[in-house]
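Quarterly update from the structural biology core.
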Amino acid sequence: MINNIKTINLLSNQTAVSYIGQAGFILKHRDFCILIDPYLSYYVDEHCCTDDVIWVRNYPPPILAEELNFIDAVICTHAHYDHMDPDTISRIYEVNKKAKFITPYPAAKHLITIGIPKENIIPSFEGKSITLNGIRITPIPAAHETINLDASGNCQEQGYLMDFNGNVIYHSGDSCIYEGLPERIKGADVAILPINGRDEFRLSRNIIGNMNIQEAVDLAEKASIKVIIPMHFDLYGTNGADVSIFERTVQARTPKQSYHVFQLNETYIFSK
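Predicted structure, tokenized:
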């Protein structure tokens, strides 16, 4: 997979999307690579189990963090360990001192505790776009059950709308639906959305939820999304979803809607 990402040649209107598990993706445009929400360790299994919830990965990390020395920017949508994994983040920085790390302003302090220098961190604020190598990255509030703000009113969790020379890809991070979200992402070409949902059983065990399958499909329809990519469904049985139900729901509800269910380590090339 790594050699494929490194060597793949893309036209100016193409963006490659590679899946590394849970909510983790590598996005490549021309020769610039963005890594988003990488979780390539057993940190949750080793540190987050309780009497009520035992976390066991369904599959091992598909790549080693040490192999990612070519990544130009890392986006962490929020500070939960399966999105901002201390083991993964620290190893990436060890082999790649030039990488930039983008995260919501309230989460930047967590990157510092992991060992990322302040000069490598780009704090993101709602609606204030960041441009790297011609790629415009716009933070959008994420509602991890609710939109959570710090004392200064800054979003603690964010999704990101990324414009790769006209190819617009939205990665929601962990989020439920909230009023105004469809308008914020209207017309995006690709939407990478969680489908694991939420319920009282999980919330009572401090497992904070996301949009469910039906909500993700409805969001894509309301926002006129061209391609849906489901995420956050396959790594942990404790907090996953049956992706075949997602496929059947799309086919039944919006049969003209395009979607792509990734296999681990698969690369998908998108162009308009």
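The CA atoms of residues 33 and 71 lie 5 Å apart.
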